[in-house]
Amino acid sequence: MADEAQGDKLQVRLVTPERELIDTVADSVELPGRTGYLEVLYGAAPLLTELGTGLVTIHGGGGSNERYYVAWGFAEVLPNRVTILAESAQKPEEIDTPAAQREYERGQKMWDQAGEDAERYARANELMHDAQARMDAKGDSSHG
Fold first, then answer.
1. Cα separation of 82 and 73, whole Å?
2. Under 8 Å between Cβ of 107 and 122
3. CA 19 – CA 131 distance, rounded (Å)
4. Cα(40)–Cα(21) distance, rounded to whole angstroms?
5. By C-alpha distance, which of 138, 33, 135 is closest to 84?
């Protein structure tokens, strides 16, 4: 693990059961919580939150941002550290845009055919959201 954050910076670590994707220092980090996005700044109150699917955006000094696609897991927030434990995560260069596009289209088709079935609507919405998050991480926001 990298040295603890210095000054008013956060130490941010993103790991999955298979690997560590990043261990860095940042100004802030945006997380896809289960019920919506949250942004963590240095000095935040301690928090343990469940992750949904979406983008983790790490804001560095000098205007640089790093984005990762994550799906499910937890994030531990401490005043000077954020640890993201995701079931799965991908760097933008690892994302298969055509596969995400196909998943999005499959979700649209499910949505169109859901009729009165609330569970099918929910599943279709989940598929489209997940696919859109992957395309956004890659930088292709053609449906966003």
1. 13
2. no
3. 22
4. 19
5. 33
Tell me which residue has tokens 């928090």: 47
Q: pLDDT tens, position by position, for the chain (144 residues)?
A: 444 446 789 999 999 999 999 999 999 999 999 888 999 999 999 999 999 989 999 998 666 788 999 999 999 999 999 999 999 999 888 889 999 999 999 999 999 998 889 999 888 988 898 888 888 887 765 444
Residue whose C-alpha is closest to residue 134's, from 27, 32, 53, 41: 53
Q: What does residue 47 show for φ and ψ, rounded to 5 degrees?
A: -155, 140
pTM exceeds cut of 0.85? no
Find the length of the chain: 144
> What one-letter code names the amino acid at 79?
P
